[in-house]
Amino acid sequence: MAFEITGKVVDILPVNQVSDKFRKREFIIEKKETGGAAVFIDYIKFQLIQDKCDLINESFLNEEVKIWFNLKGIILPTSMHGKLRKLHLPPVIRTPLLSAL
Questions:
Q1: How far is CA 64 from CA 36, 45, 51, 81, in A?
Q2: How far apart are CA 31 and CA 51, in angstroms?
Q3: Which of 14, 19, 27, 68 is the most exposed place for a label (fewest CB within 10 A)?
Q4: Angstrom distance (rounded) from CA 65 to CA 89
């Protein structure tokens, strides 16, 4: 199942070369929502792996982005495990979003 979120990139970590065959890069977006007079801010961390690490770099800092991603999870007898998997970060995200979105 694919989901979509829009937010501002507030941090981009360097690519982490975990092993000879595996690398990952994490980035954090700020998601603001309003409820009446209150503003609620959440910070959400995403992880890109392998060749997807090149989809984002420091030039995206403070930019509004739209991200499509997948969630996966399993329930074990003693615990529940979930994973957020990056699906798509299109090149058009760098253009300013319309205020109606």
A1: 23, 15, 22, 30
A2: 26
A3: 19
A4: 8
pLDDT tens digits for 37-87? 999 999 998 888 888 888 888 888 898 988 888 777 777 677 655 565 555
| SS3 at position 92 | helix
Q: Is-above-0.85 flag for pTM?
A: no
Q: How far is CA 84 from the centre of its chain?
A: 9
Q: pLDDT value at position 16?
A: 92
Which residue in this structure is represented by tokens 């990139």? 9
* Tens-digit pLDDT profile for residues 14-32: 999 999 999 999 999 999 9
Q: Which tokens sit at 25?
A: 């890069």
Q: What is the CATH number assigned to the segment(s) 2-94?
A: 2.40.50.140
Give Cα 99 distance to the centre of its chain.
21
From 23, 70, 27, 14, select the one nearest 50 (Cα to Cα). 23
